[in-house]
Amino acid sequence: MLEKIKYLENEIKGYLIDKTQDIETFRLKYISKKGVLNELFDEFKAESVEDKKIIGKSLNELKQLAEAKFKELSEKLESSSQTSPSAIDLSLPPVSDKTGNLHPLNLTRYKIIEIFERLGFSVADGPEIEDDWHNFSALNFPENHPAREMQDTFFVEKNPDMLLRTHTSNVQIRLMEKQKPPIRSIMPGRVYRNEAISARAHCFFHQIEGLYVDKNVGFADLKQTLFNFAKEMYGKDIEIRFRPSFFPFTEPSAEIDITCLICHGKGCNVCKHSGWVEIAGSGMVHPNVLKNCGIDPEEYTGFAFGMGVERVTQLRYGVNDLRLYSENDVRFLKQFKAVI
Ligand code: PHE
């Protein structure tokens, strides 16, 4: 019992408070009817006469200590809650609201995801440090494709089979390898290319790719999906056009352009005076890509598309220098506070 008393003594001496509740907790724990001190007094009754002599004194001292501490804590709390009127200067301007806001690229990313989710697309993720197979070979890139050159792709020095993904198409391969169709997903993420940094290019940027593989998926589905996306993203008056193009992993392939929102089709620097800006690459998934992932191209077909989040954001908010996105200048970032 003496040990218990010693332990409680230390506990009481070291008790700290900063709120009114703390003092009530103290009272309940130590000095109320159901508190530990009363419990000890009950235990005390059962001790032998000799022990009572030794323990009694310590127990009484503990009780006095608890009561003194309670008084001290109450006084302390009371004096700290009484701030003198002169300490508050009512003429000072209020502390301004410093809540942050989402980065413009995230605002756009969320918006794109929301549009495709409504069309039944799920969101998939994958690694940024990727092997050659998932970034190139499985996507039907020939051995000597220029993207595989050191000048275009960042390779990992210690293991040249590993690289920083150049697009999020690696996630398409990973999805098809592990999942049977139907597959309907979008893949947002950061990608890397060895480019000199300028207003129009950066060594990293963000993409959102999409993949839909099932029985009887056709080019009309691709067109309608992206048509719908453009209207949802930029409003119903937007014009969209498909231009024939080439990607090793899609056949046929098309580049997707929309009316330039900077000049509204009149011609400006951003659209190189054509009135149109490219927003995405797309096409029907090449049969070789399906085969590489163990999907029978006789049974299934699919479409894929990929867009740059920076480009979509540029058209949405009129940002015309890519570098602004990663310079972390608060004057730029805080302008997007209200736009969600
Ligand atoms: N992966 C392509 C790129 O990064 C975009 C794309 C995706 C094109 C899917 C067609 C189909 O440029």
Describe the protein in words:
There is one protein chain. This protein is α+β, with helices and mostly antiparallel strands. The chain has 2 domains: 86 residues, no CATH class; 230 residues, BirA Bifunctional Protein, domain 2. Helix content is 39%, strand content 19%. It has 11 helices and 9 strands. The protein has a 7-stranded mixed beta sheet with strand order 1-4-5-9-8-7-6, sandwiched between helices. Strands 2-3 form a two-stranded antiparallel ribbon. The longest helix is centred in the N-terminal third of the chain and has 33 residues. It is elongated. The chain starts with a helix and ends in a 7-residue tail after the last helix.
Fold blueprint:
Elements: H1 2-13, H2 20-31, H3 36-45, H4 49-81, H5 104-118, E1 122-123, E2 129-131, H6 132-135, E3 162-164, H7 169-178, E4 183-192, E5 204-214, H8 219-234, E6 240-247, E7 250-259, E8 276-285, H9 287-292, E9 301-308, H10 309-317, H11 330-333
Parallel strand pairs: 1-4
Antiparallel strand pairs: 2-3, 4-5, 5-9, 6-7, 7-8, 8-9
Helix pairs in contact: 1-4, 2-4, 3-4, 5-10
The protein binds phenylalanine.
Fraction of residues in helix: 25-40%
What shape does the CA trace take? Answer: elongated
| Binned strand content | 15-25%
The CATH superfamily of the largest domain is known as: Bira Bifunctional Protein, Domain 2
Task: Give me the CATH architecture of the largest domain, please.
Answer: 2-Layer Sandwich
